[in-house]
Amino acid sequence: MSSSVSFRITRTAEDLAETITALTQRLVKLEQRQEALELQVRQQLESVHQVPDEELATLDGIEQLLQETRQLLQSTDTLDFPVALEASDLSDEVHDHHGHDHHGHDMAA
Q1: Taking the CB of residue 101, how many other CB atoms lie within 10 A of it?
Q2: Cβ neighbours for 92, distance < 8 A, ≥ 6 positions apart
């Protein structure tokens, strides 16, 4: 009988050793998978916060174009203002010499 008990103990110990080995292998695989997922999450977070160089260059170019456009608009506004006044004065003279004011009423001579 003692040999059958000894056999069962040995068999149980071997089963436990195999189970521990299988669990250890699964644990190692899970840890590797976790590390890979953590790395992937870190990379995604970094990429969210980084703008590609090409996109930055495009945005810089657009900003430069906007500044140049604003400067052109400002310079043409200051140039057009006297021209607009002169055109308005000429328009008044053309209308006035027809004997009407701006509202279509006859003007007294």
Answers
A1: 13
A2: 102
Other C-beta atoms lying within 10 Å of the C-beta of residue 72: 10
Say how far apart CA 43 and CA 51 lie, in whole Å. Answer: 13
Taking the CA atoms of residue 20, residue 26, residue 31 and residue 36 in that order, the dihedral angle to the nearest 10 degrees is 160
Ramachandran assignment for 104, one of left (phi > 0), alpha (psi -120 to 50 degrees), beta (any other): left
Q: What is the pLDDT of residues 2-52, one digit of tens each?
A: 888 888 999 999 999 999 999 999 999 999 999 999 999 999 888 777 777
pLDDT 10s digits, 87-100: 556 555 555 555 55
**Rounded-to-integer distance, Cα 79 and Cα 34, Å:** 67
51 secondary structure, DSSP code: -
Neighbours of 95 (CB within 10 A): 14
Would you say residue 109 has pLDDT above 50?
no
